[in-house]
Design a protein that fits this description.
Layout lengths: L12 H12 L3 H13 L6 E5 L4 H12 L3 E5 L8 H9 L3 E3 L6 H12 L5 E4 L3 H8 L10 E4 L2 H12 L6 E4 L4 H24 L7 E5 L3 H12 L3 E5 L3 H9 L3 E2 L2 H7 L2 E4 L9 H6 L4 E5 L9 H7 E8 L2 E6 L4 E5 L5 H4 L6 H21 L6 E4 L2 H14 L9 H8 L6
Parallel strand pairs: 1-2, 1-4, 2-3, 4-5, 5-6, 6-15, 7-8, 7-10, 8-9, 10-11, 11-14
Antiparallel strand pairs: 12-13, 13-14
Helix pairs in contact: 1-3, 1-4, 2-3, 2-15, 3-15, 8-9, 8-15, 15-16
Bound molecules: 1-(beta-D-ribofuranosyl)-1H-1,2,4-triazole-3-carboxamide (RBV).
């Protein structure tokens, strides 16, 4: 029998299974959906190709998709985010998975292409690399794909550009834009896990440090909030006037990067744009500066320009490279400038991924049922689905909320009531 997986070490499966069990106990919404849809099998007959970080939380999503009837083939969506124990556990359970930590660019696309050999009917993306691959090298698959989903801000942005150019050939749900995704995952998930990654890679004291957050979107805001909570002085850099103003009114000083480069001890990029920190910024940084990225792609920090300036480079701790400049200053780069929360820690906590992946799961069900009727393009997650996920999360937390009385409904719909 040919092996339908490629992972680092299948012998790690038992550790992986325990980690998945740990996550399952913290993802009650997804587990509720699993129980519900095991009966009705809405994904029966669907072949799902997924390209999303291979973490314990993703494993819970994969198990839920399978429980609802789908066949699944999976690859990671970042060379450094695969947890090898989880990949082994999934392979041991019979999932077609092609993912290992530290793969190179060619191997990365080889893994994605393996999942496309499986001729998916649905695609599930984080960063849109899989959809892009379908639309460039595997266009023959488009007629049999009914729809897709996209997890993250950067991916949704790419897909909207593709759709505007008339190039997106099947419907894709923008999971990122669901309120139960961006308002929680991007803020609290990124906030905590980014600091978790920095601390695991460096173990520095954050209290009293000058922390520069590049980009004050939902992710940057979450990181800034948590860094402040740890006692750091926080500054943000921005290109969007309204975002910069929000930072100011939330007590975060705003600097341009040239000034921030001189001021900061720790730099975290969260912009989704390339070349946010470049050579002249490295020239201005103080000795011991720590630089990392929490945006989807690794282009935010221009490591080529750092490399050119550096006299030497060594890995001084796990996931922490020391670059020594010609004047003796040392600059530390974490996780090769890739998503620091996934490269250096475990990604977002299970409790928050519970809601993101409930959206992914229900998004897949929706696309299986309705994708055929939709044109190519980017679609929003229906509002009622968002509220349903939030309501389930609340009930699993044992929290009850009020309901409008008929009189209150009438009041809120009336335009005649005044003082
Ligand atoms: N992300 N997934 C995890 N633990 O599985 N952590 C973070 C996990 C996702 C998150 O939803 C974000 O939008 C995306 O990674 C960025 O690639």
């Amino acid at each position: 029998m040919t092996q339908n997986y490629k992972v680092a070490d299948i012998g790690l499966a038992e550790q992986g299974k325990m980690k998945i069990e740990w996550a399952e106990a913290r993802m009650p919404v997804l587990m509720t959906l699993r129980q519900q849809f095991e009966q009705t099998q809405p994904l029966k007959g669907q072949r799902i190709a997924g390209c999303l970080h291979v973490t314990k939380e993703t494993a819970v999503l994969i198990r839920t998709l399978i429980a609802a009837g789908a066949e699944v083939a999976w690859s990671g969506c970042n060379p450094l985010s695969t947890n090898d124990e989880i990949a082994a556990a999934l392979a041991a359970d019979g999932v077609q998975i092609y993912a290992w930590h530290g793969l190179n660019r060619d191997e990365y696309y080889w893994c994605i292409d393996k999942t496309l050999e499986f001729q998916p009917t649905l695609t599930l993306d984080d960063g849109a690399d899989l959809i892009t691959r379908v639309h460039t090298t595997h266009q023959h698959l488009i007629p049999t794909i009914v729809g897709g989903t996209e997890e993250t801000t950067t991916g949704v942005h790419r897909l909207r550009s593709m759709a505007a150019a008339g190039k997106l050939k099947y419907p894709v749900l923008a999971i990122n834009d669901a309120e139960t995704k961006w308002d929680f995952d991007n803020v609290y998930g990124t906030g905590q896990s980014t600091l978790d990654g920095i601390l695991r890679a460096t173990s520095v004291l954050l209290a009293g440090k000058n922390v520069v957050v590049a980009g004050y979107g939902h992710c940057g805001k979450g990181v800034a909030m948590r860094a402040k909570g740890m006692g750091a002085h926080v500054a943000a850099t921005e290109i969007k006037p309204t975002a910069a103003l929000k930072a100011v009114l939330e007590g975060v000083q705003v600097l341009d990067m040239d000034r921030a480069a001189r001021w900061g001890d720790v730099f975290i990029t969260a912009t989704g744009v390339k070349d946010v920190i470049v050579g002249r910024h490295f020239d201005a940084m103080r000795d011991g500066a720590i630089v990392c990225n929490t945006g989807h792609y690794d282009c935010e920090i221009n490591l080529g320009e750092l490399q050119q300036r550096a006299q030497s480079k060594r890995t001084i701790r796990d996931n922490c490279d020391e670059y020594v400049m010609s004047d003796g200053r040392r600059i530390y780069v974490l996780g090769d400038g890739r998503l620091v929360n996934l490269a250096c820690a475990e990604g977002h906590p299970s409790e928050v991924m519970d809601m993101s992946f409930a959206n992914q799961f229900l998004g897949m069900v929706l696309m299986a049922e309705q994708g055929r009727k939709l044109q190519g393009g980017v679609y929003d997650v229906p509002k009622e689905l968002d509220q349903r996920i939030a309501a389930t999360k609340l009930s699993t937390l044992g929290i009850t909320i009020d309901q409008l009385t008929p009189a209150q409904v009438e009041y809120s719909n009336s335009y005649l009531e005044g003082t």
